[in-house]
Amino acid sequence: MSIRERMSGNEAVAYAIKQINPDVMPAFPITPSTEIPQMVSTFIANGEIDTEFIPVESEHSSMSATMGANAAGARALTATSSCGLAYMWELLYVAASDRLPVVLALVNRALTGPININCDHSDSMGARDAGWIQIYAENNQEAYDNFIQTFRIAEHPDVRLPLMACQDGFITSHAVENIELIEDDKVKAFAGEYHPENYLLNPDMPMAVGPYANSPFYMETKMNQRLAMENAKKVILEIADEFEKISGRKYGFFEEYRLEDADYAVVIIGSAAGTTKDAIDELREQGIKAGLLKIRVFRPFPGEEMAKVLSHVKAIAILDRAESFSACGGPIGSELKAALFDFKFSGIAVNYFYGIGGRDYTVAEAKAVYSDLIAYADGSKPVENYKYIGLRK
Amino acid sequence: MKKNIEIRWHGRGGQGAKTAALLLADVAFSTGMHVQGFPEYGPERMGAPITAYNRIGDEPIRVHSNIYEPDYVVVVDETLLHSVDVTNGLKKEGGIVINTTKSKEEIMPLLKGYEGNVYIIDAHKVSMATLGKYFPNSPMLAAIVKISGVIDKETFLSHMEASYMHKFAKKPEVIEGNMNALKMAFEEVK
Description:
The complex is a heterodimer. Chain A is an alpha/beta fold. Chain A folds into two domains: 3-247, Rossmann fold; 254-388, 3-Layer(aba) Sandwich (Rossmann fold), CATH 3.40.50.920. Chain A has 13 helices and 15 strands. In chain A, helix 10 (272-285) links the parallel strand 10 (264-269) and strand 11. In chain A, helix 10 crosses helix 13. The termini of chain A are far apart. Chain B has one domain: Pyruvate-ferredoxin Oxidoreductase, domain 3. Chain B contains six helices and six strands; from the N terminus they run βαββββαβαααα. Chain B has helices spanning 17-30, 104-107, 123-130, 137-148, 153-167, 173-188, and strands at residues 5-12, 34-40, 49-57, 72-75, 95-99, 117-121. Chain B has a six-stranded mixed β-sheet, with helices on one face. In chain B, a hairpin with an 8-residue loop joins strand 2 (34-40) and strand 3 (49-57). The interface between A and B is medium-sized, with 26 and 20 residues.
């Protein structure tokens, strides 16, 4: 029997960490992720788990210490947001190329300039090319469920890549909602323990981690990272199947909501998906065939799979909660349009920007996006490529 | 599709409006409902206007936006009436409850012609009489439960007692005062 509870997204992730009881957690605080290491250190102080908590002086150090512990053979994780992730930047690439399966609980927040503490995806989207697996959550339940699966995916021998599990700052991290928890023993059995084949503290097999690799070897390292990312697709689905057996909840690369017969679809990541679902239900009552594709796994990017399930749609709105300043599209917009092109999509695809720096996104605004799509599809409105939702006039 | 009850809280940083919204979510959850309780974060500092929200209903809640057309509004600090448009979007079938020492007649002109139900409570008086200190959030919590009818009084009080016994396990002497604050607030809302 699952446990009916109510907690915030941060509490949910901290609870998952408690149930997994990882070996090492170095961390440095930053809003809105601070509560996660705060709660974990309370669990440790109360003797509920025996994770080694390392307070460090910066995020550069928290990621370095996480990687060091992981290379030594420990299951290690940290948490951060926004500028904290930016300060980890060079290590993100090192973790990926050293093939260290560290886990990062990322609570998405806008990057500074101007200073802003609220949610958008510019932190994780900026790190999209660092070689990390990225999994996103719509609500506290998904933040919890995703987190329980993280180490199993990252540590799989065919993968061995770092993983960031993302949720929306404040919108889910600080919102108390209902949640179904899984019993401790089931999570413990599911998460298992980390027994790497090679690790620094193994005197029988000395090894080097992160050596110099000039042009004769660097490119092969990168090719191997790509292969690991391809392997991650298979592993993510296998772990999701196993997770369904202990939770009854099904996960994949993305969720399709009323998409099967949809003429108009929104593609989105994170908490705004729920708001869009409410809009879809209202539109369906009026006979409008609206649907949604909510991306859960952004790295590896399930381009082919998404193109397939969107192939019958007349018009797609791709909603980005981060800019890329290419001046022709955002992160999801650019990548999904490329995939749609490869798989000969013949409909309309428009990139929208919403929720930047915590700008709210409402059911009424979601409905207005579908009105646009209808007008684009029937030709009554010229197709635009770059649209904003909720921009001040 | 049955609609959730939506509540918006207006307070000042440090007065516990966020805590009260989370407590309401807590108690509604414990009676078996689906809940959301969340603050809207601006520049955080003591005394700055803050907003917090609740959605409460029988079905799972998916929407993740702020609340623009609330069924009920709670104003924890009456000085906000001069600077914040507290009745903005408030449904006239719903109502507003304000912590004030003023009369309804004195308050009405500040509500921009709001046509719904207006309730007042002197949470300062209730808090001082029962706790000896000024903590407006327990009285305001009872006030919104009473005017919205989201939970019936006896269920609310019994769940709050359990919650206080858990929360104040190490200082049980404050439980009675908080329970009295809730009970007195039920009588004082006008």
